[in-house]
């Protein structure tokens, strides 16, 4: 009930009297009634509801603070700002003291600077081992500008672009080249060697060419040599190429690199003719006459038997040579 309603009620109560109260008296009566109503609504202890809610929230914030939460976390939890949490804690518990920060000796080197110089030293050693600026940056997970800064800090001059590093000046380079040469002799590709040493394929080619190793022709692997030997022994070209997983043209190139000649592809009719010629030669070796050979093999004319025998003789001479 608002103040105007209470004033109307007072006028109704005292309107029938001979001397009704004045306006000021009515307002005084209404104010006394409101104060009395507030006293009846307040808790017995005399604390207002707002103060009780604030005390409850302060206690919850204090419990969270004693539990280890920071003031920022408490403010996010209760939906208020950090200053509100700070005021609440000041009313309930004292703030936790700040941790003691040890005072560093001004003459002692900075730990951050020491770690930075150590990292720069590692970057410089990687660059001096023969890697380019880009490869060095990729290996250490930084930018090319960081590599240049490391070299500049340590007083190391960067190599001009496009200039290959001289190989063969240190034992480490000799050992690396020996391993590269061994992998190349086993048939490894330049890409595989580059992946093994963490450098580019072009860098591998430069190192091996500097030592006089021809990288244009890769030595065949043991599997490739076995496939070539099987082909030379008479195996079909397609079957031999499938052994090493390459196409027919690449396998012909492999056969030539191994010092063998590629057989001419014979037609199916030629293959059947050669087989019949060899069978005729086998029957002739058993003492059969031309008529008997023609009868056994179903040849109508005896002259064809002599053609088969002549072809078989030529094949035998070719195999002997």
Q: What would you say this structure looks like, in words?
A:
The chain has 321 residues and is mostly helical. It has 5 domains: 3-92, no CATH class; 112-153, no CATH class; 171-210; 222-257; 268-320. Helices cover 66% and strands 0% of the residues. It has 17 helices and no strands. The chain has helices at residues 3-14, 23-41, 49-66, 71-78, 82-92, 111-128, 133-140, 144-153, 171-185, 190-197, 201-210, 222-232, 237-244, 248-257, 268-285, 290-297, 302-320. The longest helix has 19 residues, at 23-41. The radius of gyration is 51 Å and the shape is elongated. The model is unreliable at 164-171 (pLDDT under 50).
Set out the fold topology.
Elements: H1 3-14, H2 23-41, H3 49-66, H4 71-78, H5 82-92, H6 111-128, H7 133-140, H8 144-153, H9 171-185, H10 190-197, H11 201-210, H12 222-232, H13 237-244, H14 248-257, H15 268-285, H16 290-297, H17 302-320
Helix pairs in contact: 1-2, 3-5, 4-5, 6-8, 7-8, 10-11, 12-13, 13-14, 15-17, 16-17
Total of domains = 5
Stretches where pLDDT is under 50 for at least 5 consecutive residues are: 164-171
Q: What is the H-and-E element order?
A: HHHHHHHHHHHHHHHHH
First-last Cα distance: 129 Å
Helical proportion, percent range: 55-70%
Please, how many helices? 17
Compute the number of strand runs: 0
CA-based shape: elongated
Q: Structural class of the secondary structure composition? A: mainly alpha
Q: What is Rg?
A: 51 Å
Mean pLDDT: 76
Q: Main β-sheet, in a few words?
A: none
Strand content: under 5%
């Amino acid at each position: 009930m608002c103040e105007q309603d209470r004033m109307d009620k007072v006028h109704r109560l005292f309107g029938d009297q001979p001397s009704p109260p004045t306006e000021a008296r009515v307002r005084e009566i209404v104010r006394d009634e409101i104060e009395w109503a507030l006293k009846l609504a307040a808790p017995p202890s005399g604390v207002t509801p707002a103060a009780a809610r604030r005390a409850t929230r302060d206690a919850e914030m204090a419990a969270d603070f004693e539990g280890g939460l920071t003031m920022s976390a408490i403010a996010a939890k209760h939906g208020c700002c950090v200053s509100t949490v700070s005021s609440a804690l000041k009313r309930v518990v004292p703030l936790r003291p700040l941790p003691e920060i040890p005072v560093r000796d001004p003459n002692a080197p900075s730990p951050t600077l020491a770690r930075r110089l150590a990292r720069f030293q590692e970057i410089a050693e990687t660059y001096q081992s023969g890697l380019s600026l880009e490869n060095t940056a990729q290996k250490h997970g930084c930018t090319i500008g960081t590599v240049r800064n490391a070299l500049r800090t340590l007083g190391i001059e960067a190599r001009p672009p496009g200039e290959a590093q001289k190989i063969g000046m240190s034992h480490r380079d000799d050992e690396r080249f020996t391993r590269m040469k061994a992998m190349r002799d086993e048939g490894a590709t330049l890409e595989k060697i580059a992946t093994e040493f963490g450098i580019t394929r072009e860098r591998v080619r430069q190192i091996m060419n500097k030592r006089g190793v021809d990288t244009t022709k890769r030595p065949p692997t043991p599997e490739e040599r076995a496939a070539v030997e099987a082909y030379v022994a008479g195996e079909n070209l397609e079957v031999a190429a499938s052994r090493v997983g390459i196409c027919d043209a690449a396998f012909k190139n492999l056969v030539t690199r191994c010092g063998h000649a590629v057989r001419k592809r014979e037609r199916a009719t030629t293959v059947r003719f050669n087989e019949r010629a060899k069978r005729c030669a086998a029957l002739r070796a058993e003492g059969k006459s031309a008529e008997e050979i023609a009868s056994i093999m179903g040849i109508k004319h005896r002259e064809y038997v002599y053609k088969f025998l002549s072809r078989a003789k030529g094949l035998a001479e070719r195999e002997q040579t």
